[in-house]
Amino acid sequence: MTTPQRRLDAAALKGLAHPLRVDILDSLAMAGPATASLLADRLGESSGATSYHLRQLARHGFVEEDPDRGTGRERWWRMVPGGLTLAATDMREDRAAMDSTILVARQFADQRARHVDTFLRRGEAELGPAWVDSSMLISASVRMTAHELDELTDAVEAFVSERLTPFRDREEPPEAKVVALHVNAFPVVGVDGDGS
């Protein structure tokens, strides 16, 4: 079964364009469903702030109440199933939407860096050598055209999607952990001496 991808439009993107909302989504993705109070503890925020931003995220279709948890007084929230696609090409005609795209993309990039940093600092001590040995951080560079880069990113996306499909919607083994997979492919700006 393929997990559906949601391509963000300008209205949805503007609803996500707040650092705490992106952090809430990341927390729900990494640690699972939570209440506003639990998210406040995880993120070092007030429960009033997380509650407000959860309602905004729900209004824009990013999160939903978890029907399997909670009581009348305790609301549990989870991410709406599926991935998110942020495409700058959809926003070029709307400067405010483009600014929101950049803000959200930068917040996601900051989260990735924080996750990598935490893994490097604490991974071996908290998870053990088997988890560290099975992980990888790769960096490579090569010269290519925009068309070649487009073909490469399409191929990598298809490969990753195919390889992750067996791990979705299954009975998780007790020793399973949340694993983040980040693939970046972009032209390096400012190295050719022409500002491009």
UniProtKB/TrEMBL annotation:
HTH arsR-type domain ranges (all copies): 11-89
TM ranges: none
Keywords: DNA-binding, Transcription, Transcription regulation
Keyword Transcription: yes
Gene3D superfamilies: Winged helix-like DNA-binding domain superfamily/Winged helix DNA-binding domain (1.10.10.10)
Family matches, as InterPro entries: ArsR-like_HTH, HTH_ArsR_DNA-bd_dom, HTH_MetalResp_TranReg, WH-like_DNA-bd_sf, WH_DNA-bd_sf
Keyword DNA-binding: yes
Coiled coil spans: none
Protein name listed in UniProt: Winged helix-turn-helix domain-containing protein
Pfam family, one: HTH_20
SUPFAM superfamilies: Winged helix' DNA-binding domain
